[in-house]
Write a structure and sequence with these properties.
The chain has one domain: P-loop containing nucleotide triphosphate hydrolases (Rossmann fold, 3-Layer(aba) Sandwich), CATH 3.40.50.300. By secondary structure, the chain is an alpha/beta fold. The radius of gyration is 16 Å and the shape is globular. The protein is built from nine helices and eight strands. 49% of the residues lie in helices and 14% in strands. Strand 4 and strand 5 form a beta hairpin. The structure holds cytidine-5'-monophosphate (C5P). Belongs to the cytidylate kinase family. Type 1 subfamily. It comes from Streptomyces thermolineatus. One of its GO terms (molecular function) is kinase activity. It catalyses: dCMP + ATP = dCDP + ADP; CMP + ATP = CDP + ADP. Its EC number is 2.7.4.25.
Length: 221
């Protein structure tokens, strides 16, 4: 188990983060949230007044912020130049801008370096969009989580409730738009790896998904 690498990909609202954290905690593995890294660099671009739709400006700045991810599944944190941005990276402004920033090849190259360095020793669950296809093609186990857009929107609204007033329909539209951008970009689009196991979580509880992933890991580890 010390060298195992578990890649969990899929769109948001499929239970990817909750599943990845629970699997890592149960198996005593580290956990890396690559979406949080793309959000962190996006937060930095917005904070520094960089136009996120100007790909050249984003590319020029891609190596400026120092991004450090904590890998404890019970308390994942992320800092930018020493500031904890775990809260600010979840705002609507960052969520709306992140697909544009993460489509820039220079940003991806930088993030992939950080992700491969974190996974080099193994013993980790890495969640994202392109982990099984591009970042860690030799991962021990690859999972691709899916769920219906309705189920995903309902889960995201549940998470946002109390933080922001957003309707279910607006949440659904935003999810579908972000998926289209993430799957349609040129560099390393969101995709299921040929050797990934697809798990449709629409009708499953979190416990069932976690159990299913742990069984797959134990078979291969
Ligand atoms: O997982 P989360 O919803 O926090 O990811 C935020 C965004 O980061 C995604 O919509 C996508 O644009 C980008 N991302 C990516 N590649 C990854 C993980 C996330 O492009 N491996």
């Amino acid at each position: 188990m010390e060298t195992v690498v578990v890649a969990i990909d899929g769109p948001s609202g499929t239970g990817k983060s909750s599943t990845s954290r629970a699997v890592a905690a149960k198996l005593g593995l580290r956990y890396l949230d690559t979406g949080a890294q793309y959000r962190a660099i996006t937060w930095w671009m917005l904070d520094n007044g960089i136009d996120v739709d100007d790909a050249e400006a984003v590319a020029d700045a891609a190596r400026k912020p120092g991004i450090v991810s904590g890998t404890d599944p019970s308390a994942p944190t992320i800092t930018v130049d020493g500031t904890d941005v775990s809260g600010p990276i979840r705002t609507r402004q960052v969520t709306s801008a992140v697909s544009a920033v993460s489509a820039v090849p220079e940003v991806r190259a930088r993030m992939v370096e950080l992700q491969r360095a974190a996974a080099a020793e193994g013993g980790i669950v890495v969640e994202g969009r392109d982990i099984g296809t591009t970042v860690l093609p030799d991962a021990t186990v690859k999972i691709f989580l899916t769920a219906s857009p309705e189920a995903r929107a309902a889960r995201r609204s549940g998470e946002l409730r109390g933080k922001e007033a957003v309707s279910l329909e607006a949440t659904r539209e935003a999810l579908v738009k972000r998926d289209a951008a993430d799957s349609g970009r040129k560099t390393s689009p969101m995709a299921k790896a040929d050797d990934a196991v697809e798990v449709d979580t629409t009708e499953l509880t979190l416990e069932q998904v976690v159990e299913c992933v742990i069984t797959l890991v134990e078979e291969k580890a």
